[in-house]
Amino acid sequence: MPVQVSDVLSRAQKLIQDDTGIRWPLPELACWFNDGAREVAIHKPSASAKSVVLPLVRGTRQVIPAGALMLLRVIRNLKSGSTDSNRIGGRSVRVVNRDVLDTQHPDWHDEDVAAFSPQVKHFVFDESDPTAFYVYPGNDGQGRVEALVSHSPEPVNTSGTTLSAYNVPMPLPDVYANAVLDYVLYRAYSKDASFAENMQRAGAHYNAFTTSLGIKLTNETGAGPTTAGYRVTRDA
User: Fold this and answer.
1) Pairing between strand 132-140 and 144-151?
2) Which of 67, 78, 44 is nearest to 179 (CA)?
């Protein structure tokens, strides 16, 4: 059974010794749960990854759906289908370094020089603009691709005053339950940071939170698509 939000909040109450929610009410802990889930998604984009179908607009520049945080990968062209069960795949799509493309085909954004096509061969991603990407050749507006994008976790309703109100699955994979718990405890103890002991506890839990994600982020420095410098030809 998936980890429930109530499981995380219950463990937090036990650790801060406030089972009745007098000092730290449940809605307050739930707000911090939402904050922690968002922090995980920011630092570990793959934790909230979803496979989506992206209809392409005319031109080279494309954007991911509203509400998505970052493009992780463009996987393939699609011949048809929009759900997981009916997608019919086409040609795979490879990431390419912008400098390589700009050097070899400086006019690739110009439809009069590089004809637009319904099929994508390569895509370009820039981490400074994480919600957009570019396709080569430019699309004629008829193409569709399958992509992985990172989403902001669905927030938990914070109006419940009993643990049973939070009997809903975590909006992240179960393996991040401990990280989110540490974030909730960090925020809880920060509330009473005027006491030296609580300030130390807050720092310890925040360090545990960042360390947990740091271990998982070892191979995700630069979470967006990566490229190797390879040659792109017009008929590649």
Assistant:
1) unpaired
2) 44
